[in-house]
Amino acid sequence: MVLLSLIATHTDVDLETVARLSAGASEVPSSLVESGTAVTGSVVLATCNRLEVYCETKSDDDVEAARSAVVAEISRLSGMSEDQVSRSFATNTGESVAQHLFAVGAGLDSAVVGEREIAGQVRRALIEAQESGTVSGGLSRLFQTASRTAKDVGAMTALGKRGLSIVSVALGLATDLSEDTDWSKKSVVVFGTGAYAGATMALLKDRGCTDISVYSSSNRAESFAASRGGRPLTRKSLPDALTNADVVIGCSGSDSQVSADDVRRVRAAAGKPLIIIDLALTHDFDPAVREIDGVELITLESVRLAAPAEQAESLKQASSIVAEAARNFSKQQLSREMDSAIIALRRHTLNVLESELEKVRSQHGCSGAAEEVEFAMRRMVKQLLHVPTVRARELAASGQQEDYIRGLEALYGITVDRADTAGNATPAAPSPAAETDAEDAGRNEPRSA
Questions:
Q1: What is the pLDDT of residue 366?
Q2: Are strands 187-191 and 211-215 parallel, antiparallel or unpaired?
Q3: Among 8, 226, 312, 351, which residue's beta carbon has the most beta carbons within 10 A?
Q4: What's phi and psi for 305, nearest 5 deg?
Q5: What residues act catalytically?
Q6: How far is 244 from 66, CA to CA, in rounded Å?
Q7: What is the pLDDT of residues 347-360, one digit of tens each?
């Protein structure tokens, strides 16, 4: 089992490129797994400022083919050339996969360092992959460990205790730009009904805002407002709400962008300034709205530049927790893979042993001599398996587990069942230590004749 990830984030590429890459991202895992390529499992993490594709393959030899398959699929869905897509993604393999995802889940790689919203997005990415049937055992363990690591960072450090998020920083900027900083007097229109819209509603209420309207181009505003408060808007009532609004917040990322001309038209008779907060990766509002008199535009880039730096000591502690978790995860994965190899070798050897013992029994029956021969042969096999078992652990620790597995195939014709390692449908086999204990318990003395 080998994990790899393709990463495009706000730190390496512009948000417009991230938005283009993300087109149809939800279809990527199913397409990859169903295509019969080198990818045996896939999970996509897509947020307002990142697209990350996580994959599992059977061996190191499949990594490049898996990466090519991801690039080709995203190129097909986004309309970008494969060269553009390839250049936009950084690729992680080995321990770097866990190191990066754990840092992301803990908020260390966010525009607002320490934000807690991303941990929920990591959990949802796994749930969606589970529901669509694209997650593999290795990826499931990876994402579950990322969630646990995020909780550890939140519990053991001061990082993010101020409750900062992309939404809270954006609202802070809006407060700074307002002539009247009292949110209880503001009329707000929220575009969208997703996770960011929900977080926005909660933070607006925390600031005392009660005049909140919600618009959804997909007609989900009524159900959303019913569960979270606010007033649902229709296409007919939207223009009047925009005319009277003090703040408009875009969280939908829908295909229908509000143009500068539309804003200019509905605001002609407003007689007061307007702040537009556009948190959608694909932009709910034409960036040209910033050229309209009396309109201020806050974007994700504005949030990134305004986000405060966390204390150096908190960052150091959090980074240490993430690094340790990544090391432990990688060790556990190597151990699982080598367990499968060791079990395969033991099964092969014990099958040969049982075959030979059957010959002894058929020739000598249950005589004392036959019992002595069986006892001696079992002790010999146990000794023969000791060194290969120790070497398996040593090679795994140095990252040479593939050499060991190839050696089993070359010398004994043993094919290691990677399904056990990946945690798919194959039942888990007992550990080598458990098998040894069971044998020793019943076989360390010759049976009486």
A1: 73
A2: parallel
A3: 8
A4: -70, -30
A5: 48
A6: 52
A7: 888 888 888 888 88
